[in-house]
Amino acid sequence: MNLLLPQLDQTGYSPGPNRVQSRIQQGTVLVFGLILCSLLLSGCGKRESKVDRATREGMLLIGNGGEPKALDPHLVTSVGDSAIMRAMFEGLVTYHPSNDATHAPGVAERWEANDKKTVWTFYLRKNAKWSNGDPVTAHDFVYSYHRILHPEMGAPYASMLYFLRNAKEYNTDKEGKVPFEDVGVKALDDYTLELTLPNPTPFLPDVLKHTTWLPVHKPTIEKYGGMTEHFTDWQKPGNSVSNGAFQVTKWRVGSYVRVEKNPYYWDKDNVKLNGVEFYAFENSFTEERAFRNGLIHKTYVVPPNLIPLYKEKKSPELRLEPYIGTYFYRFNCTNEVTGNVHLRRALSAAIDREQIVKYVTQAGEIPAYAFTPPTEGGYQPPRRVKFDPAEAKEHLKNAGYAKGSDVPAFSLFINTSESHTAVAIAILDMWKTHLGIDPKKVTIKNQEWKVYQVTIQDLKYDVARSGWIGDYLDPKTFLSLFTSDDTNNHTGWANDEYDRLFAESDNIGDEAKRFEKLEQLENVLLDELPITPIYWYTTKYLLNDDVRNWNPLLLDNHPFKAVELIAD
Amino acid sequence: MQTLKFILSRFLQAIFALFCIITLTFFLARLAPGSPFTEEKSVPEHLKEAMARQYGFDKSLPVQYVTYLGNLMKGDLGPSFGNKGFSVNEIISQSWPVSVVLGLVGLLIALALGVPVGLVAAAKRNQMPDYTLMTLAMIGICLPTFVIAPLLGETLGSKLGWFDVAAWEGSNAWLLGALTLGLYYSAYIARLTRGSMLDILNQDFIRTALAKGVSPISILFKHAFRGGISPVVSYLGPALASLIGGSFVVETVFGLPGLGQHFIKAASNRDYWLINGTVIVYASLVLTLNFLVDIAQVWLDPRLRSHS
Question: Which of A194, A321, A368, B114 is close enough to A533 for a disulfide, judged by CB 3.0 to 4.6 Å?
Fold first, then answer.
């Protein structure tokens, strides 16, 4: 402290040069002192990392995959974008923080269905508010469903609302013959919403949690453009109005989106966080380095090569949890080679899925014995797909090939990625060992993402790697894929029995009986094998231990309002 | 007059080149399979059509081209499909400053390192300092930025904690980015400086100066430097352009929201207007800088004045 005190000469007289010199000395000592202090500080107390500060401020920092494509619930499609939507908007029903199978009430306080489960009535809470203070009413939901289903809107995920009566008819109608009034959604009064479905749907609350069913604020949408315009400014911070626990306050393209507590949210007292920042890391190694250096609380993924290292360290930060998704190979059923069901059976039975998850993917994936992943207490798929070399050889003979070398050359398409290549090479090796198919005859074709999508959609492949993530917790989100008219079938496979069983399952209101029917359905699929499942996905991420109430969830849709940050 | 004519002709050439680039990019981008609406979960045809109408893709290609050029004249680069809610203008104006900072600081580092190294190597030609420095420079050239960047991140960032490893706001990670770029380009500049200095040092007027007893230091800086640095100056244009526009790797590794990432992402998203927008920016940058370099060259080297 004495450094800052004026140094008075004893005599009271201080000559010029001396004063200057003492100033210089003072300055030098000050600088050295500061350097010493900063060294001591950096030595003793650890510098507070960004994450520590964020925890103190109740700000959750998470890696969120790439840059959001939009902040409009009717336009987004990706997993990361849906996470931001979940923070900003609230639907009728919301996700439970620890159990996928239960529903937490959202804007709807309670709901009821008729016996057939075709007419659902939702009673909205009267205290639900938009982030500008407007009340959330049943009319907002009618407007939102109208918007996403509007033929002019071209919302990419509109088909999620086809559960509603006449929704598909309205959405696909270009001439304007079907009025929106025919669609099964009606506001009985300001706070009562009635949904009418053509088929019994006991799992409707599960479906309603999806991003596509989130409400949007009509005055805001109309203020910045028309109802169906994609390209308006309404999504921007400052303009955007949302009804969830958080509202967007910052959107920096290529960097991050910040949402902060919505002061009008009805349940704001139970919202633990003050906000969330969603970072758009394009590179998983960068994301991991950012996590290691205390820049984010949670990563979106973990680079596959680093998983063994984290496992070796027994790091509690590494989380590998079952995820409702299937990694599978599609067979093109319209061409000569893979159109042969016996060959498909042979190829499928020769794949040792245990080996693949153990030695190739290494992130706790589960070898798939069916297409639909099993859910605890819910649907159990038939255990049909097995690794059986003897049976594989039998199928090969039935296919008309005495030995593997007779099988004509075919192609295997993957989209560019190290891990897809590794799995493909392992499978080629298994086909060689167990069937005798020369790996040189199977060309692995590596394509850029969009090119690969087009190849698959146009059926220009023989075998192709694919993945499917469930949109809601019901086998229907998987099994609807292979009905002959589904836009995601992409195998050319059409089976009358499958279509018939699927239609039948759609008319059963009783859960147990419906699952029975779906099991029959899946048996048909796994017998014919237009696809062969390889493994069920896991979510792989790193989580800082300050983050509480972040539980393993099959759908990986975490409600941010339940998450808490507590420093150790 | 001569100089003015030269400047005018270079300017017109640049405008013509830009027009060709815009036209080529517009049509080439459409040749890639897929569209902005291609998604893993396929979008039904009727919805794709509705989206196409939203963006005017239902019109024929020549009509779209004319509309695009018309908007371009008004300075409107169109909407982005990959970042709905943002226009290409907004995206570019947001990311542009990041790239400029990265590029300029990178270039400064490159010059501050490269030129002195090149001078020393030239002055001590075929001696130990020359060999050492040029070996280092060779290594620098051979190590691509995607190797240097994570290495710097792990060492200066993770291990020593001097720098943040990612993010732009409230972070110094951009310095690591600039350093990566600077190191990489300094290697080129060092070799370039050495080479051209040697050319000059072997010329007659240098020998004359030496014979007249001018000191070696004075020869190096007063007589040789101005001519010797000329190739470096002409390299600065394209170098700065690629530093600013092509820092994709550095931006990705350090999570920086610059322009480079949009180049790559726009292409993989088939974000047509953003592809065009970024190409226009980059092309204008290259053309402008080359134009400026041409002028600087004429100013630096009196011999060029008569030629032009």
Answer: A368
Query: With 90 as the cut, is the pLDDT of residue A315 above it?
Result: yes
Interface test with B, best of A147, A229, A235, A255 (most B CBs within 10 A): A255
Within 8 A of A157 by CB-CB distance, chain B residues are 41
- The answer, for A456 touching chain B at a CB cutoff of 8 Å, is no
Closest CA in chain A for residue B50: A154
For the question of whether the overall pTM of this predicted structure is more than 0.95, the answer is: no
Q: How many other CB atoms are there within 10 angstroms of residue A276's CB atom? A: 27
Secondary structure of chain A: what % helix, strand, coil (to 5)? Answer: 35, 20, 45
Which structure tokens are listed for A371?
A: 């297409």
Where does the pLDDT of residue A27 fall: very low under 50, low under 70, confident under 90, or very high at 90 and above?
very low
Residue whose C-alpha is closest to residue A437's, from A448, A426, A445, A429: A429
Task: Give the pLDDT mean for A2-28.
Answer: 37
Supply B76's token pair: 């409107």
pLDDT in tens, A87-109: 999 999 999 999 888 898 899 99
What tens digit of pLDDT does each residue of A476-488 get?
999 999 999 888 8
Tokens, residue A167: 């929704």
Chain A touched by B41 (CB under 8 Å) = yes
Calculate Rg over the CA atoms of chain B.
24
For residue A292, the chain B residues in CB contact (below 8 A) are 158, 165
Interatomic CA distance for residues A78 and A63, integer angstroms: 14
CB-closest option in B45, B47, B52 to A155: B47
**Which of chain A's residues have a Cβ under 8 Å away from the Cβ of B47?**
154-156, 158, 171
What is the pLDDT at residue A130? 97
Question: What's the pLDDT tens digit per position in A187-221?
Answer: 999 999 999 999 999 999 999 999 999 999 999 99
Surface of B (268-307) touching A: CB under 8 A: 268, 270
> Average pLDDT over chain A, rounded to whole?
89
What tokens were used for A567?
Answer: 């420093």
Say yes or no for a CB contact (<8 Å) between B84 and A70. yes
User: What H or E segment, with its residue span, contains residue A321?
Assistant: strand A318-331
Beta-carbon separation of B85 and A70 below 8 A = yes
Candidates B35, B37, B38, B40, partner chain A, best to mutate (most A CBs within 10 A):
B40
Chain B residues close to A172, C-beta within 8 Å: 44, 46
All structural domains of chain B, each given as residue ranges with its CATH number in brackets, are: 94-270 (1.10.3720.10)
CB A276 within 8 A of CB A558: no
| Interface check B56 vs A, CB under 8 A | no
Q: CB distance B83–A151 less than 8 Å?
A: no
Contacts of B43 in chain A (CB under 8 A): 156, 487
d(CA A187, CA A193): 5
pLDDT bin (cut points 50, 70, 90) of residue A6 is: very low
Query: If DSSP codes are grouped into helix, strand and coil, which group holds residue A307?
Result: helix
Cβ of residue B42 closer than 8 Å to a chain A Cβ? yes
Amino acid at B241: A
Are residues B261 and A454, on separate chains, in Cβ contact within 8 Å?
no
Q: Which residues pair with A121 in a beta bridge?
A: A112, A194
Question: Is the CB of residue A456 less than 8 Å from the CB of residue A490?
Answer: yes
With an 8 Å Cβ cutoff, is B55 touching chain A? yes
ipTM of the complex: 0.85
Portion of chain A with pLDDT greater than 90, in percent: 75
Give me the residues of chain B with pLDDT under 70, please.
Answer: 1, 246, 301-308
- Alpha helix segments (H runs only) across B84-127: 88-123
Q: Are the beta carbons of A371 and A381 closer than 8 angstroms?
A: yes
- Which spans in chain B are helix H? 2-31, 45-54, 61-73, 88-123, 128-142, 145-152, 173-201, 204-211, 216-218, 225-228, 230-245, 248-253, 260-269, 272-300, 302-307
